[in-house]
Amino acid sequence: MNKMLTKSVLGIAGLAFTGGVFAGPVAAHAAEPVHASPVAVAVQADKPGVDAKALIPHGVQGKQSKIDLNDEQTGNAKAIIAATKKAGLPERAAVISIATSLQESKLENLGHLGDRNDHDSLGLFQQRPSSGWGSPEQITDPAYSTTAFLKGLKQVDGWQDMPLTDAAQTVQVSAYPDAYAQWEQQAADLVAQHWNS
Which residues form the signal peptide (predicted)? Predict the structure, then answer.
């Protein structure tokens, strides 16, 4: 593990145990880990003012997954983008956030799932009230949950220069640390499409 990532993980670890930066994936949405190397990327930046290179600065890592989104999922992606802009963060933060939500919930604002729940994980990012992310009502508010995720992301030293899966994993502390990478292309496409809409 490189020194910068080790420092980031150790810095977040204190927050994870005191403030709650732990959210594991729901078993129903968990994916096999992605083992991959960088591949070329073609972001569909059809909107003016979106820097395609800033969306995926390192190229995507490995095989990419994609799902068709319904209106609710698209609305949740737009809510993540709006919260990212409100926080004053760049498009890359929105890409990381959307990719994380695609892995954790498929951009669905999940409530309690009974036996399929990973502990008490809820919302777009599968955040846990018992870990200090907020109340169930807060965590299932897309703006709140995104702001909470971004707060954790901002505490990761050098997140802007990390591969997406490393930045997301440092915040989420998932049992599937490489799984976030598979959503980078779709997340970048969504940000390119909706950042200026």
Answer: 1-23
Cβ contact 145:16 at 8 Å: no
Q: Which domain holds residue 165?
A: 3-194
Give the separation between CA 98 and CA 146, rounded to whole angstroms. Answer: 9
pLDDT the model gives residue 71? 97
The token duo for 100 is 């994380």
C-alpha to C-alpha distances, 15 to 21, 36, 118, 155, 197, nearest whole angstrom: 6, 29, 20, 9, 35
* Residue 69 neighbours by CB distance under 10 Å: 17
- Can you read off the two tokens belonging to residue 92? 């890359």
Q: What is the pLDDT of residues 155-187, one digit of tens each?
A: 999 999 999 999 999 999 888 888 999 999 999
Identify residue 136 by its one-letter amino acid code.
P
The alpha carbon of 197 is separated from its chain's Cα centroid by a whole number of angstroms, namely: 21
Domains held by the chain: number: 1
d(CA 173, CA 2): 17
Tell me how many degrees the CA angle 19-24-25 measures, rounded to the nearest 5: 145
Residue 158, CA distances (Å) to 7, 140, 167 in order: 10, 28, 9
120-132, pLDDT tens digit by residue?
Answer: 778 999 898 888 8
What average pLDDT does this structure show over 109-115?
67
